[in-house]
Amino acid sequence: MAKEKRPSIYLNPPLEAVKASLPEGVSLSMRLGQIAERYALVCRKVPELSDAEKTILGNILSSSLVEPLLIRHLDAEIEDSDVADESVLRDLAERVRGMSIAERVAIVESLGF
Fold first, then answer.
1. How far is CA 74 from the centre of its chain?
2. What mean pLDDT, rounded, does the chain reach?
3. Closest Cα to residue 71, out of 41, 107, 46?
4. Which residues of 75-99 are buried (b: 16+ CB within 10 A; e: fewer)?
């Protein structure tokens, strides 16, 4: 039976920052595992969305580079969109504006972006 290859990852700037701040005795693998577990906790608490709201957000996100800045300003991205009626977009943007960053991340992840 062939030996399974260990995954290799590129240490981009955010991962380099994690590596640089490792506490004594904590491996990078252990620390990334902790971060992934905490991220999973955040993503479990997805704000309820109607099917229409999911469709609107899916259309907006599918035509965008989904990076932290977009998630932070998701409400403005919704308002600037033309994927639905202006009043519907305004209402959804207002709702998203009241959400925490963690809730916005959970929405984006739940939609597969």
1. 11
2. 95
3. 107
4. bebbbebeebeeeebeebbeebeee
What burial class does residue 9 get, using C-beta atoms within 10 Å of its C-beta: 0-12 exposed, 13-18 middle, 19+ buried?
Answer: exposed
Supply 99's token pair. 């959400």
What pLDDT digit, counting tens, does each position of 87-111 carry? 999 999 999 999 999 999 999 999 9
- Residue 23's pLDDT band (cuts 50, 70, 90): very high
Q: Provide Rg for the chain, Cα atoms.
A: 18
Please tell me the least confidently modeled range out of 3-7, 22-26, 45-49, 86-90. Answer: 3-7
Q: How far apart are CA 64 and CA 91, in angstroms?
A: 21
Token couple for 25: 């005795």
